[in-house]
Amino acid sequence: MRIVVLGASGLIGAEVCAHLLACGHQVTGVARHIDRAIRRTPQVRWLKIDLATATAADWASPLTDADAVINCAGALQDGPADSLAGVHLEGLTRLAQACQAAGVRRFIQISAAGVETAPGAFSRTKADGDAALAATDLDWVILRPGLVLGRAAYGGSALLRALAAFPFVMPAVHAQAVTQVVAASDIGRLAEALLAPDAPRRLVLEVGAPEPTPLAEVLKGLRAWMGLKPAPVLDLPPVLARLTGGVADALAWLGWKSPMRSTTLGQLAHGVRVRPEPLLAEMGLAPRSLADQLAQTPAGVQELWFARTYLLKPLLLGGLSLFWITSGVIGVISQQPAEHLLTSAGFPPALASLAVLGGAAADVLVGGLAAFRRTARLGLLGMIGLTLSYVVGAAIWRPDLWLDPLGPMVKTLPAAILALVALAILEDR
C-alpha cells in the first residue's frame, strides 16, 4: 500500500514509518524538517510540509494514488514556531477535507490519552481535532496512546531517562502519578494492522500496557535498564514544578522546546491512564509492559551518556552564553586597562580602543546568538573562532600573558572545548 505519514520524523512517526517499510509498504513521509530524515531513511519519499499552514493544493501531490493517511503530527505548546490549534484542529480539518476530495478513505489519527478530561490547551485542541475527524465520513480510527517510550528519546521520554540517571537520587515531581506506558514500536505495529481491509474503523482506541505504573516505578525501571545502582526517588513539591514550567515556557520563546514546559508537567500531574481492553477485544493486540519493553531493547553506553548529559546541556549552553556576554560587558567597563595592554604592546591608541570595543561587541554577539535555538550553532562556532583569535593575538603581541599567575589566557581554552561539546550535543533528535 501507499501510505502518507505526517510527523514522520518524530518519535512515534519514525517508528510507524520503520514498521510500514518492514511490511513492504511504500511510505511518503511529511514533516517540517526533513534534511536529516532524508539521510537517515532514504527509502521514504520525504516532503517538507507544515500541517498547521498547508492548503488543499499542498496535499494534492502527497495524496495522489495514496491508500491511507497516518497522522502522527503534534505540538506540545503554543510558541513562535508552533500553533496548537493550527496543528491539532485547523490543519487536521483541511487535511481530512483533502483526503475526501482525493478519495483517500483510510485515516489513522494518533492522538493522546486523556484529552477529553485533561486540562489545558494541548488536550482541548487534540480533543477538538479528534471530534472534527470523527464528524467526517472517512474510515477513521483514533488511537490515544499512554506514556510513549521508544528506542529513540525525545521530549518527555528523554527527560525521564535523564531523571533516572541522576546521581544519588532520582528527582521527580508527581512521582506517584499513575501512568500506563506504551512502546512507540507497538503503536507502529498497531497502525499497520489497522490498514488491513477487514480492520475495524470509525472507533477510538486507547493504547497502553494493561498495568498502571507510578512514575516513580518508571524511573526505577529506566535506571536499572541503564545498568545503574538503585537510588531513592525524591518527590519534589508541586510548587517547584510550576516554577520550572514557567522558566521552560519562557525559554520556548527563544526556540528551546524543553520537555519541562507547563503542559508536560500538567499532564503528569493529571496522570496518563488508558483503557486497553477495547483494543484487545477489537485487534487482539496487547501492548508490551514496561519490563518487556526494556528487556527487548537492551541499553548500551550511548543511552547512559545521553541520559547523563541531557540535563547538563541547558546548563552548558546557558553558562557559555552568560560567560561571553559578561566578558563583553566587562571589556566595556574595563576599557582603559584593556587598552593599556594593547598600547604597551605597540598598538596606536585609536586602534587599541577599536580592538577592545570590537572584541567586547563580538563577545556579546556570540553569547546572544548562543541563547537562541535558531542561531545557537553560529554562536558556538563564533565562540571557538574568537577564542582562537584571542589566543593567536596574545601569542604574537602579548606572550607574557601566558605566564600571568591568574592564567587568563590558559582559561580561555576550556571555554572553547566546552563550546565544542555543546556543538556535539546541540541536536534534540
Automatic annotation (TrEMBL):
The keyword Phosphoprotein does not apply. The keyword Cell division does not apply. It comes from the Bacteria. Residues 7-182 form the NAD(P)-binding domain. Keywords: Membrane, Transmembrane, Transmembrane helix. The chain crosses the membrane at residues 315-334, 346-366, 378-397, 409-426. PANTHER family: NADH DEHYDROGENASE [UBIQUINONE] 1 ALPHA SUBCOMPLEX SUBUNIT 9, MITOCHONDRIAL, NADH-UBIQUINONE OXIDOREDUCTASE 39 KDA SUBUNIT-RELATED. This is SDR family oxidoreductase.
